[in-house]
Amino acid sequence: MKKLYFLFYILPFCVFSQEMNNEKLEMIYTKASDSIKGQSGAWQFYIKQIPLMSITDANHNRMRIISPIADSNNLSDELIKAALVANFHTALDVKYAVSDGILWSVFIHPLKELSEFQVKDAVSQVYQANINFGSTFASTSLTFPSGSNKENGEGEKKEEKKYELKKI
Fold first, then answer.
1. Are 140 and 128 in contact (CB under 8 A)?
2. Is 51 within 8 Å of 44 (Cβ atoms)?
3. Is 23 exposed, middle or buried (0-12, 13-18, 19+ CB in 10 A)?
4. Phi, psi of 138 (to 5 degrees)
5. Residue 159: left (phi > 0), alpha (psi -120 to 50), or beta?
6. Phi and psi (nearest 5°) for 133?
7. Rounded Cα distance, 139 and 161, in Å
8. 43, 26 in Cβ contact below 8 A?
9. pTM
10. Distances (CA, A) of 25 to 17, 41, 61, 141
11. How far apart are CA 43 and CA 25, in angstroms?
12. Of 53, 134, 50, which is closest to residue 86 (Cα–Cα)?
């Protein structure tokens, strides 16, 4: 019985552990980006002229990928509310966040548990959330149901709202 327990409950964790580290991250970022600079644990890279940064803390098993979008002081209340709604429906594994007067698209995760696929997906989502801010606010093509996306009584979809914003 103990052998069966080991096979079904413990072995999968051993087989599928990721052990992501800074060296692997740098290789992934180098392949995914147009250009990259920095050092182990702190990189800045560009994808189609959009800046992204990644910061890790291996001692505390944390990492984040971030991309600046706009000066948060120039955002209307309506735009900020739309970003909060997007955090629930369309910005899936990333979130919109404000720090130091800047609106960011942000992915935060434990470092070691990440797979290569998850890192590539995270880079894509941070990029997509940045370029889609103010229009669809989407980090992927997948969205969770929302009252704002439901069809009206006449069977027509509501018109997509576009927002005016200033890039930094």
1. yes
2. yes
3. exposed
4. -95, 140
5. beta
6. -65, 130
7. 17
8. yes
9. 0.78
10. 16, 9, 13, 25
11. 10
12. 134
Bridge partners of residue 53, in order along the sequence? 44, 66
Question: What are the Cα distances from residue 35, in Å, to 124, 157, 161?
Answer: 15, 40, 33
Tokens of 132: 């889609």
* Neighbouring residues of 19: CB distance < 8 A, sequence distance ≥ 6: 112
Measured CA to CA, the distance from residue 20 to residue 112 in angstroms comes to 4
In terms of Cα–Cα distance, which of 17, 18, 44, 19 is closest to 29?
Answer: 44
- Taking only the tens place, the pLDDT of each residue in 13-55 is 554 556 999 999 999 999 999 999 999 999 999 999 999 999 9
| Calpha distance 102→71 (Å, rounded) | 5
Helix (H, G, I), strand (E, B) or coil at 29: helix
Residue 129: C-alpha distances to residues 16, 47, 120 (Å): 29, 13, 14
Kindly report the CA angle at 63 between 57 and 67, in degrees rounded to 5?
Answer: 125
For residue 153, give the amino acid letter: G
- Least trusted range by pLDDT, from 68-72, 94-98, 111-115, 163-167: 163-167
* Rounded-to-integer distance, Cα 91 and Cα 136, Å: 9
> At a CB cut-off of 8 Å and minimum separation 6, what does 13 contact?
none
3-state secondary structure of 123: helix
